[in-house]
Design a protein that fits this description.
The protein has 349 residues and is mainly alpha-helical. It contains 9 helices and 3 strands.
């Protein structure tokens, strides 16, 4: 005998996270952004940064430019960061087990946090320190042509990496009718955010280094070059702090945004077993991974056993959604206030 709410093998899953509702995946036919695209973004950035770091290091040694040394430190920090981001994606993809029932999704924020700290310590720290040393003890630079060539090639390679990251971000933002920067700051995927901001900072840093080296050549003074090194360091420090803050928020538990919560609430209220919802929480436990908890009032007056079966069936159906790693529902108290979707008002009974 089937109990109320029992899910048969052919019963469809609840589309708790509707198509287009998850910020980074909205509007896709399958409801989920391809993970391979994020991997490609990181791989492209790694290859570009490695080549650039080697070229800048050679140019810094040949020219003696402070700005070029700062850019070399910047590129080596970015290269190391891409390694951290690859580790982040691999570890976060591990399946759930008894010791981690919700999976390893938050690993992506741990390793992305390491990457951001590395950017701050290596990129910003070396650049600012060397810039100050150059101001105190200026040294002449030479072979400026080599510096210009390396910076030009670096701009092309960084531009290619930035194009890949921005293309991925713009598609996701457009599907949500969002500004790209707003989307990047709110997305639960830290890899595309890190690559985008690091590459954007790299392009600005190249412009700063070009100006510093050019002024050094024109004036014969190492001061503009040293100031350029310091400015590159400050730029990297700002980017690192932004990335550190975003990863910190997701690590301690970031709730889904109100639009997504409202979309999920509407889907739950469509279920014939649910009369009302009095509590609903959605917390990110990884990139595009959510854990749902809530309290619902069931239709009718089911017995304790029947209510337990209905709740268990609803939880399984909710967890069948590709964005939900787990769901926990409880019965609402009679006096609990109902949660209503946005723009809906209570009706008289």
């Amino acid at each position: 005998m089937c109990y109320p709410g029992h899910m048969s093998a052919s019963e469809p899953k609840i589309p708790v996270v509707p198509e287009g509702a998850v910020p980074e995946d909205a509007g896709r036919g399958d409801g989920e952004a391809p993970k391979d695209e994020s991997v490609l973004t990181v791989v492209v950035a790694f290859g570009a940064n490695l080549l650039i770091a080697v070229a800048k290091s050679i140019a810094a040694a040949v020219t003696g430019s402070a700005s070029m040394l700062a850019e070399a430190a910047h590129s080596w920090a970015d290269t190391g960061n891409e390694v951290f981001l690859v580790i982040a994606q691999r570890r976060a993809a591990k399946p759930a087990d008894p010791t981690h029932p919700l999976g390893y999704g938050r690993e992506v924020y741990v390793w992305s946090l390491f990457a951001a700290i590395g950017l701050f310590a290596v990129g910003a720290g070396v650049s600012v320190t060397h810039g100050i040393q150059e101001l105190v003890h200026p040294e002449p630079a030479a072979d400026f042509g080599i510096a210009y060539i390396v910076l030009a090639v670096s701009a092309l390679l960084e531009g290619a990496s930035f194009f890949q990251a921005s293309r991925q971000a713009k598609r996701a933002a457009a599907r949500l009718d969002r500004d790209v920067i707003d989307h990047l700051l709110s997305t639960s995927d830290p890899t595309v955010r890190a690559v985008f901001f690091e590459d954007a900072a790299a392009l600005v840093g190249i412009a700063i280094a070009f100006a510093g080296i050019g002024l050094h050549q024109l004036t014969g003074s190492a001061t503009p070059d040293a100031i350029g090194s310091i400015l590159v360091g400050v730029l990297l420090g700002v980017v690192a702090i932004v990335l550190i803050d975003r990863n910190r928020r997701f690590l301690v538990g970031e709730s889904a945004d109100p639009d997504l919560l409202d979309a999920v609430l509407r889907e739950l209220l469509k279920q014939e077993q649910i009369a009302r919802v009095t509590e609903l929480r959605l917390e990110y436990v990884g990139a595009r991974m959510l854990y749902l908890t809530g309290a619902v009032d069931l239709v009718g007056n089911p017995t304790e056993d029947d209510a337990s079966h209905v709740l268990a069936s609803l939880e399984r159906r909710i967890a069948a959604n590709s964005h939900i790693v787990g769901a926990l529902l409880s019965l609402a108290e009679p006096e609990d206030v109902s949660i209503l979707p946005v723009n809906e008002t209570p009706t008289d009974s």
